[in-house]
Specification:
This protein is mainly β and 103 residues long. It has one domain: Immunoglobulin-like (Sandwich), CATH 2.60.40. It is built from no helices and 8 strands. The strands form 2 sheets. Strands 1-6-3-2 form a 4-stranded antiparallel sheet, with no helix packed on it. The chain has a 4-stranded antiparallel sheet with strand order 5-4-7-8, with no helix packed on it. β2 and β3 form a beta hairpin. It is elongated and about 45 Å long. 22% of the residues are buried.
């Protein structure tokens, strides 16, 4: 389930751009998961977010967080946002969380 933040400003009608990064990660019984933060700017200020071309939130007017799970080592994936007929993509590389006692 994605968390959607409320809007914080009026729509400036600028070119679409996207920020995305991992904000938390944890081990699970079957692997590990990461929480991704994504925030778009510009476009028509109504954003549809996706991870690996699968919708995770939207259309919405603010930033979102969403969880991604894997059973493997490092995660490589693509966050994207679509607004006003444009799509912007951001590639992410996320290392798995450290095990207890690792440095």
């Amino acid at each position: 389930m994605a968390y959607v933040a409320p809007p914080t400003e009026r729509c400036p009608r600028e070119p679409l751009r996207l920020e995305a990064w991992p904000v938390d990660k944890e081990r699970t019984p079957n692997g590990w998961k990461v929480t991704i933060y994504a925030r778009a700017y510009g476009g028509d200020c109504r954003y549809s977010y996706a991870w690996e071309r699968q919708a995770v939130a939207g259309p919405t007017v603010g930033a979102v967080t969403f969880d991604v799970e894997t059973r493997h080592g490092a995660m490589v994936g693509e966050a994207s946002v679509t607004s006003a007929g444009q799509t912007v993509k951001r590639g992410l590389y996320v290392r798995p969380p450290k095990r207890w006692g690792e440095e």
